[in-house]
Amino acid sequence: MPPLYRHHHGHVIVLLVVLFAAASHGAPAGGAYDGPTCQFEPSTCGDLTVQYPFRLYNGTEDALPAYGEPQSSYCGYPGLAILCDDDKPTLLLGGHDYTVSGINYTSLTVSLADADALGDDTCPMIDHNVTVPKQFHLPTSTVAYLFFFLNCTFLPDADVIPRPLRKPPSIKPVTCRGSGEEPAMSFVLPEREIPPKDWWQACRSVYAAPVLKDALPADATDPGWREDGYAKALRGGFQVGWDRSSGPCGQCEQSGGRCGYNRTAGFLGCFCADADGALVAGNAAGCSKISDTTAPLPEWPVLPQACLLLP
């Protein structure tokens, strides 16, 4: 939007209004915003229905904008952007891909599976921990953990000090890679079956992966579990829950609006639909009844910022 000029006592006062960057393709008259950054209608990716507070994106919004172009912004919660690639919905958690198999908007839960476990490998090994952003939580009623102890080498007993770490007799290595007992072994154990003490220090790396509690074995030493049973548990995925927003975003939602954020997770304001379904800006308190003809510029809680430049 070009600067607005007016004359006052021989001086030119330049009022530069920094408008909300979310729909920065332009702000039509009446306060309506064009552009797809804030959609009220659900969208789909394969069989998955995606709607607020989630959103679909094309995977490029984290790239720096070209000089003079606005930063990307959107309606929805930070961290809840779903990439749709060949009708496969993917959510990025801590730099790792998780396939989204379902979203329950009533119970506020998302069903995920580590993409590394969904390939053709019959013996998947997880090499990272799951990182859950603050918008999510892992429901303790449905989620348990599998621990991956990878490339563990136990030296034979020797008359040396300190004595070598010994493998606990209660655990057995996975067999799907033909690791057997020598020379290095890997173990996949439910949290409840991890032996005490420091034996795990003989392993090159240790990771934890969430799974559904119902997928845990009755006996982790069972040959079926060590062959491919644990892989089935991984592919069954796990659930995360999300929390409804509070503060100004919560007030916006309670009034029927959608919260707008910039790409650095800064709250920008509340978006509302007018009588014609056009997207318009609400006010600091949320959405009020908006005229189907015109709507004044809102008093934003954070933006726009007004700069008075006096010559």
TrEMBL record:
Signal peptide: 1-26
Entry protein name: Wall-associated receptor kinase galacturonan-binding domain-containing protein
Superkingdom in the source lineage: Eukaryota
Entry keyword annotation includes Glycoprotein: yes
Domain Wall-associated receptor kinase C-terminal: 184-274
Keyword tags: Glycoprotein, Signal
Membrane protein topology class: Single-pass membrane protein
GO molecular function ontology, one term from the record: polysaccharide binding
Domain Wall-associated receptor kinase galacturonan-binding: 43-114
GO cellular component, one term: membrane
Compartment list: Membrane
